[in-house]
Amino acid sequence: MVKFEVDGVMVEITSGDPEIKLQKDLSALVSFNCPCGAKVKIDKDKLRSPTSMFAIPLSVGFEDVKKAVEYAKKWNQFPTGLSEFFRHQRTYLNIAGAADSYGVDINCYCGNCNREFNLPARFTNPVERKPTPNFVEAWQLFDHTSELSKVALTRVSVRYGFKTWKELAAHIDSLVEDKAKVDKLLTSLKKTVSQAQITSASGKDFVRALDTSLNEIAEDYAKETTRELDAILSDVREASFIRLESETKETYLPSAASEGNWKTPTG
Ligand SMILES: [Zn+2]
Q1: Is 184 buried (19+), middle (13-18) or exposed (0-12) by CB count in 10 A?
Q2: 112 Cα: distance to centroid of ligand 1 (angstroms)
């Protein structure tokens, strides 16, 4: 097996035949000696179009993995703002036509004796993507005071009965902080319960029931808080996708916008 990198894509080519010894080649990518003695070369074009020219459809595996590599690199460059992150996520994650791994058979011929070879190859994306933060993690990780985030929070605040984006942000902060405080409280309560010197059977039953109740109450609270946070933050995410007026101006009428007489495009 030979392993090498082409345009950021990891390529592994194997030979099923012990007689066929693949090696890296200076003028191509890989070469091997045909049983007739001639040298057979596999070049970059062969990776892009590994099946014979008459096969339909031609494989697009290499380009698909290359696309995944490029988008994974872009994904890893997180922006600082919260709304900017939501837009980033929409642009660079789950890209249509991109594949992290793709297996093909590279079909080639010896130019001397016309023998045919089919060499199994695998293309993989070696770029590891940063894990996707959930809503609460995103709230803690990114700056919600960026211009775009303030606009998104403002759009959502009315829906939840708040006057300003700041009030909504404070509400989200309190939900996130309370969740952590409740976790801490639960840990300490459970410690107290487990440390109680209870010896009688009925006493032990009580401790068991208390422990179960604590878990249930805590679970309900966590579920409820998470549901509320996810609802608000998913609305914030949706609001982040709406174009700002300045973006609309730039897209539709850049010259008119700069002159300050921008009008809503019609038709
Ligand atoms: Zn040959």
Answers
A1: exposed
A2: 5
Residue 38 CA to ligand 1 center (angstroms) comes to: 5
CA of 22 to the centre of ligand 1 (A): 14
Question: Distance from the CA of 32 to the center of ligand 1, in angstroms?
Answer: 10
Q: Are 27 and 134 in contact (CB under 8 A)?
A: no
Rounded distance between C-alpha atoms, residue 213 and residue 218, angstroms: 8
For residue range 160-207, list pLDDT tens digits in order: 999 999 999 999 999 999 998 998 999 999 899 888 888 999 999 999
What DSSP element (H or E) covers 33? Answer: strand 30-33
Percent of the chain surpassing pLDDT 90: 67
Gap from CA of 120 to ligand 1 centroid (Å):
19
pTM of the model: 0.77
User: Phi then psi for 123, rounded to 5 degrees?
Assistant: -105, 130
- What span, in angstroms and rounded, lies between the C-alpha atoms of 23 and 26? 10
Cα(187) to centroid of ligand 1, in Å? 72
Exposed / middle / buried, residue 19 (Cβ in 10 Å: 0-12, 13-18, 19+): exposed
CA of 14 to the centre of ligand 1 (A): 18
Q: Which of 32, 26, 99, 115 is nearest to 63 (CA)?
A: 99
